[in-house]
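Troubleshooting log. The previous structure file for this entry was overwritten by mistake, so regenerating from the original sequence record. Sequence copied from the archived sheet and checked twice against the printout by T.R.
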Amino acid sequence: MYSDQFAADNMPDKDDLPEFIHDLPELDYPKNLNAAVELLDKNIAAGYGNNVAILTPDESWTYRDVYERSNQIAHILVADMGLKSGNRVLLRSANNPMMVACWFAVLKAGGIAVSTMPLLRTQDLVPVINKAEVAFALCDERLADELVKAEPTAPVLKNILYFSDLKNRMADKSAEFNPVETAATDVALIAFTSGTTGNPKGCMQYHRDIMSMCHTVGNRLLGITQDDVIIGSPPLAFSYGLGSLIGFPFLAGATTVLLEMGSPDVYLAAIERFHATWSFTAPTAYRAMLADVAQHDLSSLKACVSAGEHLPLPTFHAWEKATGIRMIDGIGATEMIHIFISATGDNIRPGATGKPITGYQACILDDNDKPLPAGKVGRLAVKGPTGCKYLADDRQSTYVRNGWNVTGDAYRMDEDGYFWFQARDDDMIISSGYNIGGPEVEEALMDHPAVGECAVIASPDEARGQIVKAFIVLAPDYKGDDTLISELKSHVKNTIAPYKYPRAIEFIDSLPKTETGKIQRFVLRQQETKP
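Regenerated output below.
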């Protein structure tokens, strides 16, 4: 039992927890389980200490390097900083080996990791620190400014150690550490969703949740092996990045490539340089790389995973044409820790997200929380070995309904059990009584060569209630004028049902996005509703 019972005391009521299910023997974890031991220390015990664990453009760390440095940091947390089991530790860094070592150290020391996106500002950090009552922080000094400015309004944060000081203190610490014994259902991390109201949601995940993610997605779904070299752009603070770049490769004893900057040219060059076999990034990143794919040798790649937002069909086809690789699409959620619906290999059905992965169930619910038959659009609901556990948050009862995790996505399921994304619940457009999914219009637009990127939202309209409006970033050498607007409208009418065409089109230089590459359609909606 943790010395600090904060996480347990702020767990949702038992009646508000989802139903946890699975049918996999490897998920029958023992009562005591520490994810850091399972993912890191077991590689050392198996004799893989000299295998390369992490590559960057400037560094190479073996599994023994990560093991010893995480142990030294764990000593610092406990002996120097006074960490007690169950205390929360803020981690603030770009994707680099020290961030990985710190994450493992926190779990070994019995702490709860609260990782934050590098681009978060003071006003984003303060609610996280205060809500999770974070007293400790390990921070890359390059990201110190916003954390320092947060201190006056986050008085609980009392002990910050920057990476440069951390490295100096590590020199006289033992490279061996006895990990704190943790229960499988002790909270290992709190992942905060990106909030727009100043009240972000903290998603608590157990040690067993981390391992369930690795076994169901990294092993069962993807089949990552020790011979693989994994590359990806999601921040490690994002559960997509945590699983893809730490969990999956470390479970398999593989190599992970970490990039602090993931721009298309840097990313493609790194695939070529490190002979990456698996790529994990967002659909917008794959689309941005298309223009330069031919200039790089990507022959080492055997699979590409797209997650974080809906994969548009034109992007799927364009990537396959450019590389010969059929992208693996997947939907996940911070609440569920990682992907729960996907398909690989011959089971990929272009345009569909896929089927529930082994260990999970899914269905489509109506507005009364009743299952809908195949072909009907409703709310996606899922259950499995992981599930939503918000930190002291009334929104728990909205996300969890009768044991199901209701994700906030509109989907339909076909007769073969494949799930087809329609829109986020708040991206559905109701115009003159018609329900129109914004992503369907986006896909039609992106099939036109003039469209580099686009986002479709509902714009208020006195006559129709709402109209479909498209914000478009043009491809090179195209001019945004009335002629092109008419051409794009006609293109959509000839591609999907004519009533779905965008009645308004605005050309912009760039779309608002999160650090993980998700398009922030709510920003565009807010612009439309301003007086």
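The domain at 432-529 is CATH 3.30.300.30 (GMP Synthetase; Chain A, domain 3). Archived copy saved in two places this time.
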